[in-house]
């Protein structure tokens, strides 16, 4: 189910904020799992771990709240959203 929070996170405000952009990328990745476009057990090419593990890592990085951690979270989620995953 798509939650209001997930929908809100899809639109970063302000767009220039690294953590808002990371939330947007993470929301898109979560949506792909919720809509069954991507299986949570798929492997993330950049980490070798599962999509579920990567989503947890992304959330941890966002929760740290630093520019560096949010940029890392955004990069990881963007890689997943741009096809950087493979079947388990």
Structural class: mainly alpha
Report the strand count: 2
Mean pLDDT: 89
Count of DSSP helices?
Answer: 4
Cα distance spanning the termini:
24 Å
Order of helices and strands: HHEHHE
Radius of gyration: 12 Å
> Strand-residue fraction?
under 5%
Q: Helicity, in percent?
A: 55-70%
Strand count, sense and barrel status of the largest sheet are: 2 strands, antiparallel
Spatially, the strands of the biggest sheet line up as 1-2
| Uncertain segments | none
**What sort of overall outline do the alpha carbons produce when their principal axes are compared?**
globular
Kindly describe this structure.
The structure is a single chain. Helix 2 (18-34) runs antiparallel to helix 3 (51-64) and helix 3 (51-64) packs antiparallel against helix 4. Helices cover 59% and strands 5% of the residues. The longest helix has 17 residues, at 18-34. It has 4 helices and 2 strands, in the order H-H-E-H-H-E. The protein has helices at residues 4-9, 18-34, 51-64, 67-81; strands at 43-44, 85-86. It has a domain at 17-29 and 40-86.
In short:
The protein has 88 residues and is mostly helical. The protein contains four helices and two strands, in the order ααβααβ.
Topology:
Blueprint: H1 4-9, H2 18-34, E1 43-44, H3 51-64, H4 67-81, E2 85-86
Antiparallel strand pairs: 1-2
Q: Which short descriptors sum up this protein?
A:
59% helix, mainly alpha, 88 residues, two-stranded antiparallel sheet
